[in-house]
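Task card 7
Instruction: Convert sequence to structure tokens.
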Amino acid sequence: MADRSGKGTLVLVYSTDRIGPQIEALRENEVVDDNGQAETSIEDKTNDPMAVILLNQMKNKYRKQSILFANMIRDEFIQVDGRPSEPVREQVLFVLDHTAMPSVLVETGFINNHQDEDYLNSEKGQNEVAASIVRAVEKYRGEVEQAAK
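Output:
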């Protein structure tokens, strides 16, 4: 019988096919004035063609940043730790459903693969996984700060 268990890592980003949850996240993060009123409601923004274009640009910006960050994490796993990793994938994920910022989901291994399970249960494996993610965060932060200058 063939071993169908995965091996290595998988980094996922939110698929932009569903805009509803992202609009809800934007609504939750609206800028409010001193009276607690939204400066411009999301409903107004989604009915205004110019606002829709800007929302789509913002959505695509987060998507691009998420993909950039996801690839940085994947590269750390492959190049530094020598771990196999699937290509970055876009997927509709509940855990990333209401994000209005760059975001990724990192699958650090597959517990149905005995080698991955042993690695993830070991102190060495946990330290390597955490260090890879931290290095990627630091690299991403550096690129974002450099771009802001």
